[in-house]
Amino acid sequence: MIWEVFRQEEQGEYHTHCGNVHAPDREMAKQFAAIQHGRRKPTNNLWVVPKTEIGELDGDEYAFGGATDKSYRWATGYDVTADDASEVVESSGEQEDAKERRNEVV
């Protein structure tokens, strides 16, 4: 069975993948990881995980990177056809004026 090994160099830092070990069970995998990956560099902590337990999230399946559409910050991104949207309409006009002034400066 293949076990993936993640090493933490100093307390508080992230664990990084440093390799794998072949072992029949968890205890042997921990021992092999300590010998092969824990003694070569300064090591605070090791994570030893069965390779079959590691899941992958593909960028084609999921959108990573957070919300890049920030139109919610501007009144122009809202529906202003409602009767109670007078403040939004006023703000929209102010933001359009500000946008024109920014373009004039550049």
UniProtKB/TrEMBL annotation:
Q: Which residue intervals are annotated with compositional bias (Basic and acidic residues) in the record? A: 96-106
One Pfam family here:
PaaB
Composition bias of kind Acidic residues appears in 83-95
**Span list, region Disordered:** 83-106
Looking at the UniProt entry, the stretches that span the membrane are none
Q: Which NCBIfam families match?
A: paab_haloarch (NF041867)
User: Which protein, by its recorded name, is this?
Assistant: Enzyme of phenylacetate metabolism
Q: What is the lineage of its organism?
A: Archaea, Methanobacteriati, Methanobacteriota, Stenosarchaea group, Halobacteria
